[in-house]
Amino acid sequence: MTLLTQTLSLPRLTLRGISKQYPGCLANDDIHLDIAPAEIHALLGENGAGKSTLMKVIYGLVKPDSGELLWDGLPIEVKDPAHARKMGIGMVFQHFSLFETLTVTENIALALGDDAGELEALATKIRTVSERYGMAINPDREIHTLSVGERQRVEIVRCLVQNIKLLILDEPTSVLTPQEVETLFVTLRQLAEEGCSILFISHKLNEVKALCHKATVLRAGKVSGECIPAEEDTTSMAKLMVGDDTPVSTTYPKKLGSSPLLTITALDLPSDDPFGVHLRNINLTVNAGEIVGIAGVAGNGQEELLASLSGEHLCRDGKTIRFAETEVGKLPPDKRRQWGLAFVPEERLGRGAVPEMSLTENALLTGYLTGMVSKGMVAWNKAEAFADDIIQQYKVKAAGRNAQADSLSGGNLQKFIIGREIMQNPKILIAAHPTWGVDIGAATAIHKALIQLRDQGAAILVVSEDIDELFLISDRIGAICDGALSPFKPTPESSIQELGRMMAGDFSQSTSEGSASQ
Amino acid sequence: MDIDLITNILYAMIRTGTPLLIVAMGELICEKSGVLNLGQEGMMLMGAVVGFIVTLLSGSLLLGFLLAMVAGVLMSLIFGLITMELSANQVATGLALTIFGTGLSAFVGSDFVGKPIAGLDPIHIPVLTDLPIIGRMLFGQDLVVYLSFLLFAAVYWFINYSRPGLVLKAVGENPHAANAIGLPVMRTRYLAIIFGGAMAGLAGGYLSLAYTPLWAENMTAGRGWIALALVVFASWKVERVLLGAWLFGLASILHLVFQGLGFSVSPNLLAMLPYLATIVVLVILSSNQSRSRLVAPMSLGNPFYAKS
Amino acid sequence: MIKLEPRGERSTTMAYLSPLLAAFLTMLTGAILFTVLGIDPVDALITILYVPISDTHGIAELCVKTAPILLCAIGLSVVFKAKIWNIGAEGQLLMGGLFGSFIALQLIEAEGFWVLPLVLIAGVIGGMFWAGIAAILKVRFNTNEILTTIMMNYIALNILLWAVHGPLKDPEGYNFPESALFGDASLLPILIEGTRVNFGIALALLAVVAVWVLMSRSFYGFQIKVMGMDAGAARLSGFKEKRLTYFALLLSGGLAGLAGVGEVTGPIGQLIPQISPGYGYAAIIVAFLGRLHPVGILFASLLMALLYMGGEMAQISLGLPLALTGLFQGMLLFYLLACDVLIAFRIRLKPKKAKTLQPLATETQG
Predict the structure, then answer these.
(1) Which CATH number is A2-242's, of 3.10.180.10, 1.10.1380.10, 3.40.710.10, 3.40.50.300?
(2) Is residue C312 part of a domain?
């Protein structure tokens, strides 16, 4: 009996002085952390604060340079993920660790190893467990037929079919609609009540406040504070995350334009990719001097829509996409750029910038239409000057214009790319997930640059999975779901709940004003 | 065309397709794990020369075949070490393996060119083997041909029904996810590479010990490359590799058919046919881009490096 | 315990040192091999690497052998930059030789300054034609160029054999598979009297300079590099992927074709079955060894030509098989690929920690 009470009072997991050094970056610096049984514990921090490294340490994917882990009070070395699983640790990855061409059952069987047993028995178990926690999934479906939300369910159920004591979730809400987030929280609370510890990794303060019992905040690899989220306000937690000198909240005045610069009319576009989404009857207008935001869960046609706008995927009918009065649907990317389009893709290394090329070369990459090439020869001095200008005006931290793109941090590279596009004075700017994975300082700088460009009269279209960001910078807002666009309305007239419904494909509740293009 | 000719063509088709089938099975497993080893030709040549020399010196065909496989495995291990431990580019390393194997096999085999050995004989079952048309094709082959049938069945079962086969496919599709859930990515890929090496060695040994029992420089004549094309042709499906290997076997012996039909065509032009057929098949199979994306192992050719 | 540790960024020093290290390791392995074979390693290495070029005649021969390798390799450097794996320089070289020979044989009696350019252009067209087929197959049908170019090497060889055994055979040649000797007007002029050094090496050096300008100064070259490093970025920036693919393949095919016609109109003087002892394949190694950079390729070509001569010398004076050249070529490429790991990683000697259990570490160091 004493042993049992002792076990109950002990933390399930204790981290003592965990440190991990990567070349050029101390990812974890002397981290201490306790998680009790039945506790939902938040690990808060900005991108790059060291959250991912720490949870990989717990899951046995990364070996710490120093420090120790205690499991139920006893020191232990987690050898590898299989060992972690045996101990009762389950993990839901941000980028799912699922195999597209295999079925749900096969995926789960792979993770269970020799414990999987017969596939049919496992399928039955999957059905039972998933229904019990309100996350029904069909075990026979292949992963590539599932939506992102359903894939996350598979990841969670994969942890639940075994005896689980600690569930780690890495930014689980970033791929969900607000309504799906609510459902997930219900499941997590139910799990915690049954005694499972949960480590919830996030940078979204309101979610942490709504769900977690305790929080540990990381900044630049160190623990910057601990708190009980329910007793704090979001500003104080934000200060712990970003430090005192970074402004944590800003608002921008909203504006509406009236002269259309980008018009999409009845765009139907089947995808070439077997796993892709077909675009269905897309209608949208973006006016000069406004920012239009498109929300949506990943994989609902954002990539396809963006590719049709950039010119990577040409339309069959030129009229479906127009820049002002020019029909561009059948024009290739360089012709669209010539007209005045700038484009910030989602992948900043690869597409946005060539990783192994210098910043000068990457400046030339899209800047070549601004007089850097004459008679087929590159005027390298002009490209260098352009790169220097970008670095200076957008405060890009880099070892100079000769630095390789992949040597920059995500935030600095994104500032460089945004700067490169904006400094070409575009009439239309399309940006995909402009602040994905960057720190708050860089995000604020990027938002300000976009607002400034808007005020100069450009039409801006932003596609993002971050609803908070869209509400912050968009003048009009809507959602994409399964290749179709919801009606758009001025941002102040919309709400997170309404947008969430639209992200889930329920466009019916909208008011009579209809598509913003009218 | 008389009956005898048809009988002989069918017999030769299977026989000629056998080394292709064996090496393609090895490459299929290798590619299923996400590793593209372009060194098949080099591994086959090493298998051929080692098998030949060993048999010539020891008089034992069995020992010859075994050491041919060992030679293939050793070659594949060089590839494995360079691509996996040193994360070198798979395409360049595979090419290097072929160039190296071509040079090394010619070097060690230079004293053995044109020497005769007693090769592996076809079996003869009274009555059955003498059946018209299918007799020699089905009942008059040598043991390795029958072994290749077994190999096919084993690989078919392994990929479609076994748990290690599931792991193999998972590793080939997404090695990072596989690593994240604790699957042994490196071990799986090593084993796949080694299996590929063993099969290439065996196929090479078959050429120098059974098909044309002698050693000549470059005697594989591009079969390793054709096998690579065969895997694409088969859309990474085991049963289609079998079909493809025999079809290519037929393409390689078309000169027999032409002779039988009484055409006189330059032997040099006829010798082009298997290569030409390979290109034609590749064109037909590859032209549908989205389809080939669906069937090829998704991580094929991509190195895997886990930070630890 | 030896441990590889990521450097964080690529080391330019190692990028230059790695080929030298690879050459050194190849020599070292060669020395060990000779010792095992009972040959004095120093003597053998001198025979292979020094004796062939120890006199002016040798240096002249080095130039003769360098020309075709350099032409093929400099062309390959462009396609490889675009990450197009043209393994078909050998076949393109053979087709260049065949096309050139065909024209040269038509003009066997002709005289005039126009004959040679015509023959050379025919050779270039032959190489471009052969590479162009691979380009069409890649662009239009999405066919893997590694496999098609390899297959086309075998096809080209067979077409060449058919030609010398059939239509292009010298009717007065006692049935040998050889064409008639070309007319003087079709032959490349000798640059240095008394040697075999011909205009081919000048053409090759010209090609090196042209490719250098193309890749470092022109926007076309920049686009090719971007396409190779990051096809997504190239597409998004509006670079014409198909046009660049055609351009790169035709350029490398044309240069390989020039190498082929340069052989038949230069040192050989007629069409024979053995135009090339694998120059097209050797050029692949040269391109990598030279880091795809014109200067590097120039030096690597000289080394490769020397290896060919050294192999012949070893056969004559040491009684070693001619295949020695191929063996050294393969080793060189292997060592290069292995040494290249040092560009992105550094070697750390670490005392093995007694306490740490690292069952995964051995599996995950990739």
Answers:
(1) 3.40.50.300
(2) no
Q: Strands A489-490 and A476-481, how do they pair?
A: antiparallel
What range defines the domain where residue C143 resides? 62-298
B173 closest CB neighbour out of A82, A96, A101 = A101
- Per-domain residue ranges of chain A: 2-242, 250-340+430-439+455-518, 348-425
* Helix or strand run (H / E) with residue B143: helix B143-161
Nearest CB among A311, A337, A365 relative to C226 is that of A365
Question: Is C337 in CB contact (< 8 Å) with chain B?
Answer: yes
Cα A189 from chain centroid (whole Å):
24
Do B21 and B238 touch, CB atoms closer than 8 A? no
Query: Which residues in chain A have Cβ-Cβ distances shorter than 8 Å to B177?
Result: 93, 96-99
CB contact under 8 A, B289 and A82: no
- Tell whether B147 is within 8 A of chain C (Cβ): no
Say if the Cβ atoms of C217 and A377 lie within 8 Å.
yes
| Residues linked to residue A377 through DSSP beta bridges, in sequence order | A374, C218
pLDDT band of residue A6 (cuts 50, 70, 90) is very low
**Whole-Å CA distances, A271 to A483, C233, C359:** 10, 20, 44
Contacts A109 to B, Cβ<8 Å: 163, 166
* Interchain CB contact of B103 with C (< 8 Å): yes
For residue C109, tell me if it sits in a domain: yes
Higher pLDDT: A517 or A103? It is A103
Q: Does A272 touch chain B (CB under 8 A)?
A: yes
Chain B residues 136-195 with CB within 8 Å of chain A: 163, 166-167, 169-170, 173-174, 176-183
What residues in C contact B233, CB-CB < 8 Å? none
Whether C223 maps to a domain, the answer reads: yes
* CA A499 to chain CA mean position, Å: 17
pLDDT of residue A437: 79
Chain A hits for C218, Cβ within 8 Å:
376-378
Q: Please tell me the number of Cα atoms within 13 Å of A203 on its side-chain side.
A: 23
Q: Please tell me the number of Cα atoms within 13 Å of B51 on its side-chain side.
A: 36
Report the CATH architecture of A250-340+430-439+455-518: 3-Layer(aba) Sandwich (3.40)
- Nearest Cβ partner of C141 from B100, B103, B286? B286
Structure tokens at B28: 């299929």
A495: CB partners within 8 A, 6+ apart:
none
Whether residues B186 and C363 touch (CB distance < 8 A) is answered with: yes
Q: Which CATH class is domain B3-295?
A: mainly alpha
- How sure is the predictor about A249, in pLDDT bands with cuts at 50, 70 and 90? low
Residue type, A477: I
Tokens found for residue B236? 């990474």
Q: Give the range among A329-343, B131-145, C209-223 with minimum mean pLDDT.
A: B131-145
User: What residue ranges do the domains of chain B occupy?
Assistant: 3-295
Q: Give pLDDT, residue A2.
A: 45
Of A22, A80, A365, the CB nearest to C233: A365
Matching fold, domains A2-242 and A250-340+430-439+455-518? yes
Q: Would you say residue C166 lies in a domain?
A: yes
pLDDT tens profile B152-210: 999 999 999 899 999 999 999 999 889 888 889 999 999 999 999 999 999 999 999 99
Q: Per the CB < 8 Å rule, is C236 touching A347?
A: no
Which residues of chain A neighbour C361 with C-beta distances below 8 Å? 63
Closest CB to B100 among C140, C334, C365: C334
* Strand stretches in chain C, DSSP E: 2-6, 345-349
- Which helix (H) or strand (E) segment holds residue A321: the answer is strand A321-323
Integer Cα distance of A187 and A179 in angstroms: 13
Q: How many domains does chain C have?
A: 1
What confidence tier does A94 reach under pLDDT thresholds 50, 70, 90? confident
